[in-house]
Design a protein that fits this description.
The complex is a heterodimer of chains A (about 725) and B (about 230).
Chain A lengths: L1 H22 L4 E8 L1 H9 L4 E17 L2 E11 L7 E5 L8 E5 H7 L6 E4 L5 E8 L12 E5 L9 E8 L5 H10 L8 E4 H44 L1 H9 L4 H41 L10 H27 L3 H5 L20 H10 L2 H33 L10 E3 L6 H5 L4 E14 L6 E7 L11 E4 L7 E5 H7 L6 E6 L4 E10 L8 E5 H7 L4 E8 L5 H8 L4 E2 L8 H36 L1 H9 L4 H39 L11 H28 L2 H5 L3
Parallel strand pairs in A: 3-8, 5-7, 13-18, 15-17
Antiparallel strand pairs in A: 1-9, 1-10, 2-3, 2-6, 2-9, 4-7, 5-8, 6-7, 11-19, 11-20, 12-13, 12-16, 12-19, 14-17, 15-18, 16-17
Helix pairs in contact in A: 1-5, 1-7, 1-8, 5-8, 5-11, 5-16, 7-8, 7-16, 10-18, 11-16, 11-18, 11-19, 16-18, 16-19, 18-19
Chain B lengths: L3 E10 L6 E11 L4 E5 L6 H8 L7 E6 L2 E2 L5 H11 E4 L11 H6 L11 H11 L15 H13 L5 E5 L7 H12 L5 E6 L2 H4 L4 E6 L2 E4 L1 H10 L1
Parallel strand pairs in B: 3-8, 3-9, 6-7, 7-8
Antiparallel strand pairs in B: 1-2, 1-4, 4-5, 9-10
Classes of the chains: A alpha+beta (about 725), B alpha/beta (about 230).
Chain lengths: ~725, ~230
């Protein structure tokens, strides 16, 4: 578990810095409508604190063909002289000779493209792939379109540049440089900034959740291991009390006995920790590397060696300390007491006998409960693990829901169609259609400081009839000069009801509206604005349009889709474009959940095994009076139940009232995201606990049944 | 037909050079209602014999037949069933379960799967007849040694066994309590009782006294008579 957490945390937590350093990522990347290179260079050269810049021409929506694969939305950057802003992770950089291209590593991996392979851009003559790149300023294919770099030499392109990469001497001065850049950008249209710091914040937000989860899980696993190992070591020392007493009697020192016990633990712990290290790394390195590749970041590689070595030492130190400490305590007692096999820290319960009649199951529960502190610690650890497994199931369920269910985003339509607004009347007449309306969408940037784009959505009438994200503050749009903004946008720009939203549309026109309300939208991380259609179309008549269709309950969706024609499509969920990312996240969650489940199984087996080990004589007495393996199984089932029942309650409560709400706030503070585990998930986890407990009980009971009754009766 | 019949029992303990044959062809028969005492010095193999007779351990050779059922060669589960239905154990250190009250300790065998019916009723009767009603709700560490051993005897009898095996039943008791416990063992009606002990007082209640020496059982009627007279 510790290793798994380290691999993922290190990969995600430090991946961006590694990638940015290797790629020499610029402090700011500026995109704009094509301008003469000389004119742009002059303006950039006048910026303060400038270290370097390079200018490029970027083409988007390019057709890219490779053997067996094709894409129509590739981005091609024409590379000139100057710093690159990408790392070469295989092959070599462009040499300046014509006919050479670089492709992103993610694209090469997804398409199985070899070095030296050929690709065609917009049907041009084949170009040879000479290297694979990595640059963390954007996610990689397939989360984004393919990205290809081509040398300027030998390429016939229209004049002008539309992309500038800027490096500063002091990156801390980026804000003032951007203000200066905006101030001197008059006449430059379609200006958009992406900053290194902004990309990092976005990635840290997403990675932070995964890392927090894993760190918490590792701590639980460590706590479980520490409790179990300490209990196991205590039981072992208890078993050896007479031997320890004998050695003390013949002159062995306390420290010698402690060291001997510690050494024995070391001999077992060192190979076990090594196996755990290898298993944890194997389980998580692959999915993490795939995720990092999608984020255009390198796998941690050798950088993991030091943290893994530290983890190995921690994994060894816990059992060694757990074994040495009770030995140190025992060896401090009088040899005579030890020779009599005196209890290490016997404290007989002063409780009166329970009114519950003790069958074997109740007896088993009482035996487990005899070590109350341990039972509480183990139940807490097991309950926490259960809570995290529930959380992961809820998270996976939410991911699926967001991916496939438009309703999860507050969308009240099921279908879209690329039809003109004038067709609304005809669409409404289709049998099964309950409502239809034009939906306009545009991409904008904030007029002041936000470097991320904003999704602008508009309906001619009440948008809540088709999209109703919950209102978090203020009111719905009531006037033509009002807007509702997503909480993500409100947070980024400090907007509240009554503020002015000023955004620059794709057309270059500016839209200024009064913020009527703030809504919780999961779309585009909450960076959305709902505006009246008339206001949007007045500034940008070219805003994209489609018809959205709500189907009557019980109507045949397939028939309505067919009636709408070829352009009809189901409404998309939030992550429809990020299916590979979701799959990878699921793989990581699954791997962590499996490790977490193993922690639960380990805790249950250890609890049963410790009950058998510590109460060897009691079990032998029960067997002597006629109990067979089924009776011992029932007794151990009681011990397991004493652990599982409170653990399940702790787990459900923890997930429902602490972990779920906390993660929902972390993941999407800009929207209401329900991460409470459903009845199905709870039932599945409870069933898993029962299965784990059954496996633990049967296994330990079988082993206990093979023990000699006679030697058990003689046990201290 | 005797309740218990053991013949040619051989048992070696330890391994290699430390191996020692503690039972070397032991033969023993005990009838219903008969109390047999096995005397011997420490390490002579008395407890080993008792464990073999009770199906807690397996002999290297020989046969043990209890209530018409052959014990040797049986699987552990089958031996557990035999112990449950036919044998009651009384141990020197009582071996009561600390987490259970006196009454629950008595009831424990009656609640095991496969126990004879009527266990609860027999337990009530035993608790009353052994004078345990006042203390039945107490935990073992709250009871005196004599009380604990009486609870242990009640536990041994709750399954209505044909054979009671007692291993040094008075070893941890004072003289008065020891006498009470021996009196109880003497009055077990038609049950066969085997007591292994090194205390002459315990052997004095027996119908027959056997001495275990050099791995063999030897009956000495004169010694039995002398013990009874001295008691």
């Amino acid at each position: 578990m510790l290793t798994a957490a380290l691999v993922v945390s290190d990969g995600l937590g430090r991946g961006f810095d590694r990638a940015a350093g290797a790629a020499d990522l610029p402090d700011a990347i500026v995109r704009f409508d094509p301008e003469p290179a000389g004119q742009v260079a002059a303006r950039i050269a006048a910026l303060p604190d400038l270290a370097a810049f390079s200018l490029r021409r970027e083409f988007t929506g390019v057709e890219l063909d490779a053997p067996g694969h094709t894409s129509e939305n590739a981005a091609v950057e024409i590379i000139g002289p100057g710093r690159r802003g990408y790392a070469i992770v295989a092959g070599r950089d462009l040499s300046g000779r014509p006919g050479e291209v670089l492709v992103e590593r993610g694209l090469a991996a997804a398409w199985g493209m070899p070095l030296g392979g050929r690709i065609e851009l917009d049907g041009s003559s084949p170009q040879r792939v000479v290297g694979f790149t990595e640059s963390p300023d954007n996610v990689s294919y397939p989360l984004a379109g393919p990205r290809v770099y081509v040398a300027q030499v030998g390429v016939s392109v229209p004049p002008g540049v539309n992309l500038a990469e800027i490096w500063l001497r002091d990156p801390h001065r980026l804000d003032e440089v951007l203000v200066q850049a905006r101030a001197t950008s008059y006449g430059v249209h379609g200006l958009r900034f992406v900053t290194r710091a902004g990309v990092r914040v976005l990635l840290d937000q997403a990675a932070g959740i995964v890392i927090d989860l894993l760190v918490a899980l590792s701590l639980i696993a460590l706590l479980t291991a520490a409790v179990m190992l300490a209990a196991s070591a205590r039981a072992e020392v208890q078993r050896r009390l007479q031997a320890i007493g004998l050695r003390r009697a013949v002159g062995a020192s306390r420290s010698y006995l402690t060291a001997t016990q510690g050494l024995e633990a070391l001999i077992v712990a060192a190979p076990a920790a090594t196996i755990g290290l290898i298993a944890g790394t194997l389980a998580t390195y692959g999915p993490t590397s795939r995720l990092l590749m999608m984020l255009n970041e390198p796998a941690p590689g050798a950088a993991l060696a030091l943290p893994l070595a530290a983890a190995w030492m921690a994994a060894v130190a816990i059992p060694v300390t757990s074994a040495a400490w009770p030995a140190w305590r025992a060896a401090g007692r009088a040899p005579v007491a030890l020779l009599r096999g005196a209890e290490l820290a016997a404290a007989r319960s002063r409780r009166r006998a329970s009114p519950i009649r003790a069958g074997l199951t109740v007896l088993g529960a009482r035996l487990a409960g005899a070590r109350r502190a341990r039972l509480v610690a183990t139940a807490t650890a097991l309950g926490s693990s259960t809570g995290f497994v529930l959380l992961m199931l809820a998270l996976a369920s939410a991911l699926v829901s967001l991916e496939t269910d438009p309703g999860a985003l507050g969308k009240r339509y099921q279908l879209t169609a690329q039809l003109p607004p004038a067709a609304v009347g005809q669409v409404r007449a289709i049998p099964g259609v309950q409502a239809a309306a034009p939906r306009y969408a545009d991409e904008a940037v904030d007029s002041f400081s936000l470097q991320e784009t904003i999704d602008v959505i508009a309906y001619p009438g009440d948008h809540t009839e088709f999209e109703a994200p919950p209102l978090l503050g203020g009111s719905r749009i009531a006037r033509p000069d009002e807007a509702e903004v997503g909480a993500g946008l409100a947070d980024a720009l400090g907007l509240v009801p009554g503020s002015t939203l000023a955004i620059q549309l794709a057309s270059g026109g500016e839209l200024r509206l009064r913020v009527a309300g703030v809504v919780g939208s999961l779309d585009h991380d909450g960076r959305v604005a709902y505006v009246p259609a008339r206001a949007l179309l007045a500034r940008d008549p070219s805003a994209s349009e489609q018809l959205v269709v709500r189907v009557r309950p019980g109507a045949d969706l397939t028939r309505v889709t067919a009636a709408l024609g070829a352009t009809a499509a189901p409404a998309a969920g939030a992550t429809a474009r990020g299916v590979p990312l979701v799959d990878t996240l699921r793989a990581i969650l699954r791997a962590v959940a499996i490790v977490d489940g193993l922690v639960c199984l380990y805790a249950l087996i250890q609890t049963c095994a410790l009950t058998v080990q510590e109460r060897r004589r009691t079990l032998s007495v029960i067997r002597a009076v006629g109990a067979g393996t089924p009776a011992i199984t029932r007794l151990l089932a009681g011990a397991a139940l004493a652990l599982v029942a409170p653990a399940a309650a702790i787990g459900i409560a923890l997930e429902r009232w602490l972990l779920g709400p906390a993660l929902a706030r972390l993941a999407a503070g800009y929207a209401t995201l329900s991460l409470g585990a459903g009845a199905g998930a709870i039932a599945a986890v409870l069933a898993g606990l029962v299965v784990a407990a059954t496996v633990a009980v049967l296994w330990v009971a079988r082993r206990a049944g093979r023990e000699s009754v006679v030697s058990g009766l003689a046990a201290p | 037909m005797p309740v218990l019949a053991a013949s040619g029992i051989i048992k070696t303990v330890g391994a290699g050079r430390a191996a020692r044959r503690v039972l070397d062809g032991v033969n023993l028969e005990v009838d219903a209602g008969e109390v047999v005492a096995v005397l011997g010095r420490s390490g002579s193999g008395k407890s080993t014999l008792l464990h073999l007779l009770g199906g807690l351990d397996r002999p290297d050779a020989g046969r043990i037949v209890l209530a018409g059922e052959e014990l040797t060669g049986r699987r552990p589960g089958a031996l557990a069933r035999v112990r449950l239905r036919h044998i009651g154990f009384v141990f020197q250190s009582f071996h009561l379960i600390e987490e259970l009250s006196g009454e629950e300790n008595v009831l424990l065998p009656a609640r095991l799967p496969g126990a004879r019916r009527g266990g609860e009723r027999r337990a009530r009767r035993l608790i009353d007849s052994l004078g345990l009603a006042e203390i039945a709700g107490r935990r073992p560490h709250e009871l005196s040694g004599g009380e604990q051993q009486r609870v242990a005897i009640a536990r041994a009898l709750v399954g209505d066994p044909e054979l009671v095996l007692a291993d040094e039943p008075t070893g941890n008791l004072d003289q008065d309590n020891g006498a009470t416990v021996l009196g109880l063992l003497r009055e077990l009606g038609d049950r066969a009782v085997v007591i292994v002990t090194h205390e002459p007082e315990a052997a004095a209640i027996a119908d027959r006294v056997l001495r275990l020496e050099d791995g063999r059982l030897r009956e000495d009627a004169d010694e039995a008579m002398a013990l009874r007279e001295s008691a």
